[in-house]
Amino acid sequence: MKQAVEVGASTRVALEDRRFPAYFAVLYATSCGEKYGLSFQDFAAILEEVARQYLPPGATPVETAELHRSLRHEELALARACASGSEAAWECFLNRYRQKLYGAAGAIAREESAARELADSLYTDLFGTRQSEDGRRISKLASYTGRGSLEGWLRTVLAQEYINRYRSQRRLVSFDDQVQAGPQCEASTEVPADPRLEAAVDAALVNLGAEEKLILASYYLDGRTLAEIARMLGVHESTISRRVERITASLRKRILRGLRERGMDARAAEAALGADVRDLTLDVRARLQEKNG
Amino acid sequence: MAQLPKIVRQRLAQQAPAGSADHPDANLLAAFAENALLERERAAVSAHLAQCADCRGSLALAIASQPEVEPAAVRATTVGKRRWLAEWRWAGVAAAACCIIAVALQYQVQSPQPPAVEKTKQLAAPPMAAAAKTGLAVVLRQQVAGARKTKVERVKPAEPVLPGPSLLAVQEQLPPPTLDTSSSAALTVRPVEPPAPPAPATTLSPPAPEAQAFRSEPAEAEQAKKGLAALQALRPRASGFAQGMVSRTQVVPARSKSALSSASVLWSINASPATAENLRGVVERSMDAGKTWEVVPLSGSVSFRAVASAGSNVWAGGTGGALFHSADAGAHWERITVSDESARLTGTIINIDAANPSLIKITTSSGERWTSPDGVRRWTRE
C-alpha cells in the first residue's frame, strides 16, 4: 500500500534536483521539513552528514540508503529546524516534548529542585544561548541524528548530563568520606593474586561475547537488577536470569580449565578459584568490636 | 543467583576501559535502548557498554526515566502474565455465569423423555477455569437431551499451565440412529489434526474459521452452538485461544507461554539450544499438540522474537527486520522485505498480530507499526 504523501513546492524542487539520490525527495516529503521551514537542500545535507558520521568511507549506496531510510525523518527534520531557529518548529517541539522533558528530569533526579535545574539546563542548551562566529545560535538539537526517537535522545542526554553532574559532586565529597572512613578501607583492596589465576580469568573473559560481558558488568559490577538489565536489552527478566546463570557457570568452567592448563591439578584449581581471599567478606570493624566487647 | 568470584569481578572491571573519545553519543545510546541499531553497530555499542560504567549508567537512567519503562518486547510477556492473573480473577465470575446459563438452557431444551443416564465425564484436565468445565457440561447435556451423539474434542494447549479454558470443538456425527446415553463414550481427547481450510458451513460469530470445527446442520446444532457461543463469550480474552487468532507471539524462551495454532500445528519461539555466546530465538513447531517440538531452520543469523499464524499462513519475525512467511503451514518459507516507498523495516520485530487475516500487524521493539492487507507484499508504516 502506497503511503499518501502531500507534495509541496519544495518537494517538487527536490524531485527535480539531480544532485541527490531520488529517494531523498521522498524522505524529505515524509519528514514534513517543508512545514518546519527546512529546505530540501538543508535536509539533503543533513542526510549526507548522518551517513558520514555512521558509515565507513567506502560504504555502498545500498548501505547508505538503508541507513537513511532507517532514520526518524520527521523528528530529525523537526530537531534540525529547531536548531536553525524555525519558530514553527519550536512551537511544535515545545508542545510535544516540553512536558516529557521535565517528566524525565524528575524521574532521573528524583528531587524536584534538582530535576527542574537539570531540565532547565538542557532546555537552555537545546535552545542555544551561545552563538557561532556568523551569529547563529548553537543548539544541542543540531547533534540529533535521527537514529533513535527524539524523546529517547532527550532522555539519554538528560541522563548523561545528570551523571556528569553527579560525578563532579561525588569528586567533591569523596575526600570527606575517605577521611571519615579511615585508612582501613584503603588497605583492604590490594591483595596479590596468583598470576596463574589472573591469567586464566583474563583468558576466560576474553572469550565472552560483548553482550555477555555487558550483562555480567551490569549485574555484578553495577548491581543492577535483572529487570533493569532486561529493559536495557529489550528482553524478558527471566531470560536475563537464565543467561546470568549460564554465563557464570560457563565462565567458572573455563577458568578451572585454564588453571589446569597452567599446571594446577583439579583440586588446586577449585581451591584457587573458590578460596580467593578477596571473596571473603569480613566486616573487620564489627569483628574487632565484638572482641573488644 | 550464582556468585561470581571477586577476582573475576575485579578483572572484568579492569578490562581495557574505553577512552572518552570512543563513547557512543546519545543518538547511538538511545537507538541501542530502542533496539534500532544495525547488528554490527549494536555489537560495537554492547562492547563499549561492557567496559564503560558511565555509559551503562546513562543508559540505565535514560531507560528508567521512561514512564512506560518496559520495552515492547518485555511488555509482550509481562502483559501475558498479567492477563493470566486477570483471567483467573474472572474465572469465578465466568463459572457462575456458566452455571446460570446451564440451568437456563436445561429448562429451554428439556427433552420430552428424560435422559436415561446423564453422565458427564470431566476430562482429565490441565488447570482450567471452572467455566470451561461448566461450559463443556452444558454442551454435553444439550446433546444428550437432544438425542444426538456429540463428540467433544479438546485441542490441548502446549503446556498445561496455560490459563483459561482450552479450545473446545464440538463435532457431531450425523446421523446417530440411537441415543448413546453414555456420554463418556462420546468424549474423546484427540491429538490435533492437520489444518482444515476455513469451514464454509457453520461457524460461530465472530467468524473464526479454524478455531471451531462445528460441522453440523445448523438447526440441529442450534442449542449446542448457543451453549458453546455463551461459553466463548465468557471465555477470558487472549489466552492464546482468542477467536480467529491462531497463535500468539511470545518473546524468546517461554515455551509455557507458547503460541497455539487453532488446528494442528503449534508455533512457538524458544531460546536456541546453543551456548550462552550464541543465544538467539528460534522458531519451533509442534505437530502433536505440544508434546514434542522441532526447530524450524529459517535463518542462522536472525534471532526470532515473534511468530503468528492464520490458517495455513505463518509469519515469523525477529532481529534486523527479518520477516519470514509460509503459506503452507510451514512447509515452504520465503523472506519478506517489509517496506513502503519511504522506509524499510530494520528494527526487531517483537509482535505479529494475525488476529485479522486481512490486516496483518507488525510491531517492532522501537514501537514502529506496520500493517499489511496480505501480510506479504503491501506494507504501510503507521
How many discrete structural domains of chain B? 2
Number of domains of chain A: 3
Please give the most extensive interface between any two protein chains, plus how many residues each contributes: A-B, 89 and 87 residues
Q: Ranges of chain A with pLDDT <50 over ≥5 residues?
A: 1-5, 183-188
Report low-confidence residues of chain B grouped into runs of 5 or more. 69-81, 111-221, 227-262
From the spread of the alpha carbons, the general shape of chain A counts as: elongated
What is the ordering of alpha helices and beta strands of chain A?
Answer: HHHHHHHHHHHHHHH
Helix content of chain B: 25-40%
| Main beta sheet of chain A | none
Work out the oligomeric state of the chains in this entry: heterodimer
Work out the helix count of chain A. Answer: 15
- The total of beta strands of chain B comes to 13
Whole-number average pLDDT of chain B? 61
Secondary structure tally, helices of chain B: 8
Looking at CATH, the homologous superfamily of the largest domain in chain A is Winged helix-like DNA-binding domain superfamily/Winged helix DNA-binding domain
User: What is the H-and-E element order of chain B?
Assistant: HHHHHHEEHHEEEEEEEEEEE
Main attributes?
heterodimer, A: mainly alpha, Arc Repressor Mutant, subunit A, 3 domains, disordered N terminus, B: 382 residues, alpha+beta
Question: How is the topology of this model organized?
Answer:
The complex is a heterodimer of chains A (293) and B (382).
Chain A: H1 9-16, H2 22-31, H3 40-54, H4 61-70, H5 73-83, H6 87-109, H7 112-127, H8 150-181, H9 184-187, H10 195-206, H11 210-221, H12 226-233, H13 237-261, H14 266-274, H15 284-292
Chain B: H1 6-14, H2 26-33, H3 39-51, H4 53-64, H5 72-108, H6 130-145, E1 150-155, E2 167-172, H7 183-186, H8 222-234, E3 266-271, E4 281-286, E5 294-296, E6 304-310, E7 313-318, E8 323-326, E9 334-336, E10 349-353, E11 360-364, E12 369-372, E13 380-381
Antiparallel strand pairs in B: 1-2, 3-4, 4-5, 6-7, 7-8, 8-9, 10-11, 11-12, 12-13
